[in-house]
Amino acid sequence: MVSLIWLMVMCCSCCSSLVEGLGVNWGTMATRKLPPHTIVKMLQDNGIKKVKLFDTDYNTMSALAGSGIEVMVAIPNDMLATMNDYDSAKLWVKKNVTRFNFEGGVNITYVAVGNEPFLKSYNGSFLKTTLPALKNIQSALSDAGYADTIKVTVPLNADVYESPANNPVPSAGRFREDIRNLMTQMVEFFHQTGAPFTVNIYPFLSLYGNPDFPVDFAFFDGASPPVIDGNIQYTNVFDANFDTLVSALNSIGYGDLPIIIGEVGWPTDGDINANTNLAQRFYNGLLKRLAANQGTPLRPNAYIETYLFGLIDEDAKSIAPGAFERHWGIFAFDGQPKYPLDLSGSPTLTAAKDVQYLPQQWCVYNPNTKADVGSKLIDNMNFACTYADCTVLGYGSSCNGLDEKGNASYAFNSYFQTQGQKDGSCDFQGLAMVTTQNNSQGKCNFLVQIVGFDYSSASSASLSLLEMSVLLYVSVMLLFF
Ligand SMILES: *[C@@H]1O[C@H](CO)[C@@H](O)[C@H](O)[C@H]1NC(C)=O
Ligand SMILES: *[C@@H]1O[C@H](CO)[C@@H](O)[C@H](O)[C@H]1NC(C)=O
Ligand SMILES: *[C@@H]1O[C@H](CO)[C@@H](O)[C@H](O)[C@H]1NC(C)=O
Ligand SMILES: *[C@@H]1O[C@H](CO)[C@@H](O)[C@H](O)[C@H]1NC(C)=O
Ligand SMILES: *[C@@H]1O[C@H](CO)[C@@H](O)[C@H](O)[C@H]1NC(C)=O
């Protein structure tokens, strides 16, 4: 009897949260990166079949070749102006799409033109260049014969639409007034080309940005009083936000345009609400809904193509938005799962395999230093934290509560590890020393970094594995015909 119940529980938990075609964002802004083939194996081991990139890095693309994983490649914002020139767009397509399109190559399904280019904090820097870049890339792809297989989209921040302050309900959603014209042209273009609208939705940021935001409304367990919108009751901000976009699209005559979620997720450190418990609560709710193809009140019973943010922590991301920016991964920097998550019918994630770590040693404050070190300690700590990650030291984070010397030790170690433990990186004017004793305490992890993969090493000039496999393929074909 007990085992029967257990079996039933197993069955329900496995089937209920199996999300068809779930994707993840694979960013690489880390000081030390796992080798791309290690990541691709990790994706496969976890049943992840779609990935969204922020560029078209050659090493990454080579590792994805033949994996069967569907890929959204991207053109970074700083290349948008260049893509306003049609010949440059054509060259980009040749070098970054056509090159990987061979039997056993990379299955590119989308090109993302820019990344949240209309974010208010960019002060309008990309308002003039995004749409022309989008059109040029679309034409270049069409010319190269990809019009049917590759769709061109622009991942947009949810701040491109809003509801008026005096009527803050999803049905009142409109595109932001300062870019309404531009958004209308862009949406018309998506409609013509059969491309989806890609939006990044972050319930965590709703909570982070507004101290009065009801915490439960960020999650999917319906514990907070609903927002009433006509005869619809919204019980979570994800639905409300999504439907605000549906209303905005509807207001310009494209209420049926497909929408995909380019980024959604929850960070685990760097803020009082960023921890593994809340991340797990968020993902459990999200994945169940996605698996059930429940849709939202304005688009019920719909499959929503979704890319989680993100795959792995990136300790070199800008922390302008907040210290949590470096902790979005469902995996830690070394490919270790942070908490149980059911992505593919297994209750836990599978860690990256064969990860190579640096030696088991740390850099810490040297207790034999003369007592009065004063501002020298602060200066050296600031130096370390400028070049390495110290975001776990702040309020609400995993290493908050260390004393001043503990802080210094954390900072020194972070720098030492980021530098690959190289000679001279644990000195700090004589304040630091190397130790083989693990100073981690409680949730505060003094980490030992990974060896790290050099993404600049395999230059496209040398004959790479990928090109060799193309050659091999071509010569095998010649043999047969
Ligand atoms: C291809 O993409 C890479 C990475 O995003 C970029 O550095 C490179 O300039 C692109 N190639 C061309 C010809 O635009
Ligand atoms: C690439 O992905 C698309 C979309 O799922 C699929 O229809 C197609 O069969 C895939 N192509 C290859 C070569 O695997
Ligand atoms: C936007 O403007 C603000 C205030 O003038 C400035 O601090 C910030 O650096 C600007 N950002 C960009 C991306 O230009
Ligand atoms: C340790 O560093 C954090 C983050 O900079 C700071 O908030 C905290 O006050 C520091 N603790 C001490 C004892 O200096
Ligand atoms: C150091 O100790 C922490 C906490 O006890 C542990 O989680 C971590 O794995 C240890 N690090 C290494 C490199 O052994």
UniProtKB/TrEMBL annotation:
Q: Which domain of life is it from?
A: Eukaryota
What's its catalytic activity?
A: Hydrolysis of (1->3)-beta-D-glucosidic linkages in (1->3)-beta-D-glucans
Report which residue ranges the record marks as coiled coil. none
Q: Which GO terms describe its biological process?
A: carbohydrate metabolic process; defense response
Q: Which positions carry the signal peptide feature in this UniProt record? A: 1-21
What EC numbers are recorded for this enzyme?
A: 3.2.1.39
User: Which of UniProt's keywords are assigned here?
Assistant: Cell membrane, Disulfide bond, Glycoprotein, Glycosidase, GPI-anchor, Hydrolase, Lipoprotein, Membrane, Plant defense, Signal
Pfam families for the chain: Glyco_hydro_17, X8
What are this entry's molecular-function GO terms?
A: glucan endo-1,3-beta-D-glucosidase activity
Top-level EC class as recorded in UniProt: hydrolase
Q: Name one GO cellular component term.
A: side of membrane
Residue limits of the X8 domain?
A: 361-446
InterPro entries associated with the record: GH, Glyco_hydro_17, Glyco_hydro_17_plant, X8
Membrane topology field: Lipid-anchor; GPI-anchor
Q: Where in the cell is it found?
A: Cell membrane
Give yes or no: UniProt keyword NAD: no
The yes or no answer to whether the keyword Ion transport is present is no
Q: Which PANTHER family match?
A: GLUCAN ENDO-1,3-BETA-GLUCOSIDASE BG1-RELATED-RELATED
Q: Which family does it belong to?
A: Belongs to the glycosyl hydrolase 17 family.
Q: What is this protein called?
A: glucan endo-1,3-beta-D-glucosidase
Species, as recorded: Dioscorea cayennensis subsp. rotundata
